[in-house]
Amino acid sequence: MRKIVGLLIIASQLLLGNGVNGQAKNNSIEQAVQQLREALLSGNESKLRTISSSHLTYGHSNGLIENQDAFVATLISGKSVFVTMDLTDQTIDQIDNTAIVRHTLYAKTNNDGVLGEVKLKVLLIFQKDKGSWKLLARQAVKIPI
Q: Which strands make up the sheet holding 65-66, listed edge to edge?
């Protein structure tokens, strides 16, 4: 009986330990998503470059695909401006040094001086690089507002 109780205690500790570890992993990815959100809202070149990979492929809902330089240039130039941004329905799946994030993005925009609203389903792929999560790929699709 003591062996069974001992095994149950060990098994529960292992399960709880994995849950805490999984939460810690997701928290670091959630922080990276928040850093990306803040960089998109600020249009700050340094923040945008810090959170994104030099190998970035950034897919817009209209089919436009940008590399890191084009992505940053679009945001710092004012051509694309996020005024507000809310992220909901977020899921995170981490496999080793890669994280797959999906969420719904609702934003108010000011693109080239034209106010607008977007509602998008977004897929983000982050890769851990030298201890930091970097946005490697992003693809968005429009959904009706």
A: 65-66, 52-59, 132-142, 114-129, 98-111, 82-95
Handedness of CA 13, 16, 18, 20 (dihedral sign): negative
Residues of the chain with pLDDT under 70: 1-25
Please name the residues in contact with 12: beta carbons below 8 A apart, sequence gap of 6 or more.
none
Pair of tokens at residue 4: 């069974």
| Enclosing H/E stretch for 128 | strand 114-129
Q: Which two tokens stand for residue 48?
A: 């945008």
Residue with tokens 């994995």: 18
Sorted by where each starts, the structural domains of the chain and their CATH numbers stand as 2-142 (3.10.450.50)
82-93 exposure pattern, b = at least 16 Cβ within 10 A, e = fewer: beebebeebebe
* pTM of the predicted model as reported, rounded to 2 decimal places: 0.81
* pLDDT, tens digit, 9 for 90 and up, residues 97-120: 999 999 999 999 999 999 999 999
Spatial contact of 120 and 145, defined as CB atoms under 8 Å apart: no
